[in-house]
Write a structure and sequence with these properties.
Layout lengths: L2 H4 L4 E3 L3 H8 L3 H14 L4 H6 L6 E2 L13 E4 L5 E7 L2 E7 L3 H4 L4
Parallel strand pairs: 1-5
Antiparallel strand pairs: 2-3, 3-4, 4-5
Length: 108
């Protein structure tokens, strides 16, 4: 990836209805923690996202991405929950907030 691409500030896309439903139905302490994470994300560069030990951005190999998306990733959005997302240019397009760790990776 080119240097300029990884130094670009992350832009958030929170428009996915599933993500919105997942986020808005979290209990208040978790919802506030998720919003803190989102606020932090929008101040980061992509390089910082990739390296941040707290977010733990990782490719999900067990889930085949939809057509037109290279890969789906997970990131820690609260202490106990992970979100799924993909990168689209400067945007992180958020898809879900998983109810538990295993469901993030498509496991039952």
């Amino acid at each position: 990836m080119a240097k300029a691409e990884t130094e670009t500030t992350v832009r958030l896309d929170l428009n996915n209805p599933v993500f919105q439903e997942n986020l808005l139905t979290l209990q208040k302490p978790e919802r506030l923690a998720a919003l803190d994470t989102l606020g932090r994300l929008r101040q980061m560069t992509w390089n910082q996202v990739y390296r941040d030990k707290g977010l733990h951005w990782e490719k999900i190999l067990s889930v085949k991405p939809p057509a037109g998306i290279d890969a789906i990733y997970s990131l820690r959005i609260t202490q106990s929950r992970r979100a799924t997302a993909y990168r689209d240019g400067d945007f992180i397009r958020l898809l879900t907030v998983a109810p538990d760790h295993d469901s993030t990776y498509g496991r039952q």
